[in-house]
Description:
Layout: H1 10-25, H2 30-37, H3 41-53, E1 57-59, E2 65-67, H4 69-72, H5 80-98, E3 101-108, E4 111-118, E5 133-135, H6 140-146, H7 151-158, H8 168-181, E6 184-187, E7 194-200, E8 208-215, H9 224-244
Antiparallel strand pairs: 1-2, 3-4, 3-8, 4-5, 6-7, 7-8
Amino acid sequence: MQNRPTYGIQSVDHALRLAAMLQQEGPLRVSDAAERLGVARSTAHRLLAMLVYRDFAEQDEDRRYVAGPVLRRPSAPEPAVELRRVALPHLQDLTARTDETTNLVVVVGDQARFVASVECDRVLRVGDRGGRVLPAHLASGGRAVLATRDEDDLRALYGGAGSPVADLDGLVRELRRIRRQGFAVNDQRTETGVTAVGAAVPADGLAGGISISMPTARYRRDRLTEWAGLLATTARGIAHDLGAG
């Protein structure tokens, strides 16, 4: 039996209950959520909107809310806690060097989950991505990690019915190029106005990647070599410290 916290935050409790309902019971309409929680429809709508923003929920074609990528992601074990601890100082240094937001992702199945972000101080910047989930074949860090994998594994992962990849041969060719050059670019594939450059962390048994995210207005192809070099140095530093730990 669990006791209710003395200083419980009602809005957090409501959001967690909604997430559990979506995962365990299936689709909800705003009116259903309001009735279950005993709150106004406007309150239920705001709570659901925040769950959508953090990828705990999404809307289907009937405008019902269903479990999002975070609640659906595979349950394979991830060394995310230790990876995050080791990577954060390196991300902070990378952000200081680039003056852009940096991220750490872990790839599980065909999804890339952001486990840490370090925002830069610029007024116009990419915000904290922590907790968000993106398709691995689109996110820069996810693409860099996929590029390290055997092509037979990639075809097994993306070759089945309902695959999110329409041109598997094209993806395999792209990943070969990413493997050769050592970095991947996501130029507005997942969000209009946001461009990212990513690299894999070279550690055995670790599906981790890092990225530099920036407003597309500041993205310059002539700086790719510079950014790729900084990412490679940062990724090696993280891998070294993981091994040392």
